[in-house]
Automatic annotation (TrEMBL):
Gene3D superfamilies: S-adenosyl-L-methionine-dependent methyltransferases, Vaccinia Virus protein VP39. Keywords: Methyltransferase, Transferase. SUPFAM superfamilies: S-adenosyl-L-methionine-dependent methyltransferases. Coiled coil: none annotated. This is Trans-aconitate methyltransferase. InterPro entries: SAM-dependent_MTases_sf, Trans_acon_MeTrfase_C. GO terms for biological process: methylation. PANTHER family: TRANS-ACONITATE 2-METHYLTRANSFERASE, TRANS-ACONITATE 2-METHYLTRANSFERASE-RELATED. GO terms for molecular function: trans-aconitate 2-methyltransferase activity.
Length: 256
């Protein structure tokens, strides 16, 4: 991982409904006749755990995440959790379904990562993945541009957010020879956000964290303001005060 951001559950959950929509869509597409063990890898605050339990009644549902603050929220939902680095996590026994929503894009070397996750599946198991495909969008690209600007480069040298994910064809070539069934698709959600600078508020819950964590507390408001000024022309306010955030995501379903 290029950064180890500190996760703020309250900030992340500020847009809980919008962040949960891709998880709902992915869970609905998972096909397994009767999994016994289901893992939510990078479960965050645990929003998807009840959805997985409803989709697979009778299965053991477990959340895995590296953030103690996020897991504290997840445990409140009543599901077993495990604190672990998802970059190196390995189950004690094969898993029937590995579900991971907006987590793997933080990790490097996807060739090795996806190979390891497929190896953790039981025969007939399914790997269900959703990752943001937003690296070229203003939301993400302007973070790197700002960090490299003269005003911030001294303090943010070498700091980056999540790296770009691979192309769909790369994931196809990586996974197709190893699985019985593979689905790949993109969905672009158009989120309708409210409030002052809501796209900045969205980014503060995820991709902006590495930059904010690297700055002293006193400098963060200025960085926040500079980022907001750069973003506004790309995400204008609609006539009713809404700001639209187009957000593209890659979905992968691979079954052994």
């Amino acid at each position: 991982m290029s950064a180890n951001p500190s996760w703020n559950p309250e900030q992340y959950l500020r847009f809980a409904d919008e962040r949960l929509r891709p998880a709902i869509d992915l869970i609905a597409r998972i096909e397994h006749p009767g999994p016994g063990r289901v893992v939510d890898l990078g479960c965050g605050a645990g929003n998807a755990l009840p959805l997985l339990a409803a989709r697979f009644p009778g299965a053991e549902i477990r959340g895995i995440d590296g953030s103690a603050a996020m897991l504290a929220k997840a445990e409140a939902a009543g599901f077993p959790t495990e604190q672990a680095d998802i970059a190196s996590w390995s189950p004690a026994a094969p898993v029937d379904v590995i579900f991971t929503n907006a987590a793997l894009h933080w990790l490097p070397d996807h060739a090795a990562l996806f190979s390891r996750l497929l190896g953790a599946l039981a025969p007939g198991g399914a790997l269900a993945v959703q990752m943001p495909a937003m690296h070229a969008a203003p939301l993400r690209a302007l973070q790197d541009e700002l960090a490299a600007s003269p005003a911030w480069s001294d303090r943010l040298a070498g700091i980056r957010s999540a790296p770009p994910i691979l192309g769909a064809g790369d994931y196809y070539d990586l996974l197709r020879p190893r699985v019985a069934r593979l689905e790949l698709w993109f969905t672009e959600y158009v989120h309708q956000l409210k409030g002052p600078d809501p796209v900045v508020q969205w980014a503060m819950g995820t991709s902006l964290r590495p930059y904010l964590d690297a700055l002293p507390e006193a400098a963060r408001p200025d960085f926040f303001q500079d980022y907001a000024d750069k973003l506004r022309p790309h995400y204008p306010v609609q006539a009713d005060g809404t700001v639209l955030l187009p957000f593209r995501r890659l979905f992968i379903l691979a079954s052994r």
